[in-house]
Design a protein that fits this description.
alpha+beta; Dna Ligase, domain 1; 4 domains; 8-stranded antiparallel beta sheet; 13 helices; 32% helix
């Protein structure tokens, strides 16, 4: 029997993998209009349905249902955060396996996640939605500094600001009070958990959660934009047990029954505390780091699960057990960012940087003439280097030095005198 998979959103290489890993698989895509030009191998889809970002859930459902009546979908997939909520609506109506609307709401809407976990006795993080700087100030008065402000629904580290003193309140509120392509829901303020930040890459099947890898994160102390990662993270056996137990409990509490998850934690002196979780593969090339370090291809596991393959955790556990018998290999990534708003004039030294010891790749995302900006969000970063070593610190150092080996010339904006003529 052939499969017809409805892909909600883009997914980069994932729709192509559905066709190549499956047998007689056809794909159709429903996505926002802005995504259509970015879709790969467009001619291989049965159809591409583009809708306005502001189109209602009912419009998305009506379009998908109309196609379903003509050419029934057998499966549905949503590989990124954007429009996962719409995928849940469509799946419920068409009777296809997918995360529930409630699960997606808990995952996307950070205050609701906190409230769900708090109700189950799993999270005691003080938090609130605030409508003004005055309310933000009152939260800080009650719960103290430091705290952190962010959009209630958000991605890409947009609008996140750490608040150390009262002088930071207005700037942080303005940064977090943004509604756009990736952000909505008002300003969420939380107590800032202190400790090492990690992410946990996991894979679930039929309600069972397998911890694949723990990744150490490096973030900008002000904006909390991630500037680097290394995996596997160096954590003690006791910490690994605590992390694994905690993340499994969180995923079960949010009723996540299948698929990849990317859960961000702080390892506090009182144990792991959640920042947020995502029902998708990690970004920032972390799946590639996992594959290089552990020989586990989470992207393929995700696609195979969508196609209906069963008992995937058996193979995953066997691969993880085999990886544990080998000498450890640490994989790192470091990102390039600018300390000022400027214009990129030229890039040189890339090929030499790529030939350095332990370097896997060096990539820059901007060409000459592009604008560079200070580190405000994840998309402010303009390149990365990946490297490996048998020591995590050396892997990070190699990635950073590969970026340092490139020469990037920039043009500064003209100085404007404020002196009277």
């Amino acid at each position: 029997m052939s499969d017809h998979v409805l892909v909600v959103g883009g997914g980069m290489t994932m729709p192509g993998l559905l066709r190549s890993l499956g047998t007689d698989v056809r794909t159709s895509v429903v996505c926002q209009l802005a995504i259509v030009p970015k879709l790969r191998e467009q001619h291989l889809h049965q159809r591409i349905l583009g809708l306005r970002a502001e189109a209602s859930d009912q419009e998305w459902l009506a379009i998908a249902s109309a196609v379903h009546r003509l050419d029934p979908f057998t499966k549905i997939a949503s590989f990124a955060e954007r429009d996962q909520d719409r995928a849940a609506v469509i799946a419920e109506e068409l009777g296809l396996p997918m995360h529930t609307k409630q699960t997606i709401h808990w995952v996307h809407h950070k205050p609701s996640m906190r409230e769900r976990l708090s109700a189950l006795g799993m999270d005691d993080t003080p938090h609130a939605i605030v409508q003004s700087v005055a309310e933000l100030r009152e939260f800080a008065r009650i719960h103290g500094f430091p705290c952190i402000a962010k959009p209630a629904v958000g991605a890409g580290s947009i609008g996140i600001r750490q608040i150390e003193t009262e002088a930071d309140l207005a700037t942080a509120f303005d940064a977090a009070d943004v509604t756009g392509e990736w952000t909505s829901g008002g300003v969420l303020v939380e107590r800032l958990h202190i400790g090492v930040q990690v992410s946990v890459e996991a894979f679930s099947d039929e309600g069972t959660h397998e911890i694949v890898c723990v990744t150490q994160k490096y973030s900008d102390p002000f904006t909390h934009v991630e500037v680097g990662h290394v995996l596997p993270a160096e954590v003690s056996a006791d910490q690994l047990t605590a992390i694994s137990t905690y993340v499994r409990s969180v995923l079960s509490a949010l009723e996540i029954g299948f698929g990849p998850t990317h859960t961000e934690l702080v390892l506090t002196e009182n144990g792991p505390r959640i920042i947020e979780t995502h029902t998708r593969l990690a970004g920032d090339c972390i799946p590639q780091l996992v594959q290089d370090a552990l020989a586990v291809n989470l992207t393929e596991y995700t696609v195979r699960q969508v196609l209906g393959e069963r008992n995937l955790l058996d193979g995953l556990r066997a691969e993880l057990a085999h990886a544990a018998t080998r000498p450890p290999r640490y994989e790192a990534i470091w990102f390039a960012s600018s300390e000022m708003d400027c214009t990129l004039e030229s890039i040189s030294g890339l090929e030499a940087a790529r030939l350095r010891e332990g370097v896997r790749e060096v990539e820059l995302y901007r060409a000459a003439g592009a604008r560079l900006e200070t580190l405000r969000a994840s998309n402010s970063r303009f390149g990365h280097a990946r490297a490996y070593a048998d020591d995590p610190r050396v892997a990070v150092l190699r990635a950073r030095e590969a970026l340092d080996a490139t020469e990037i010339r920039v043009l500064l904006p003209p100085l404007r005198s404020t002196s009277p003529i």
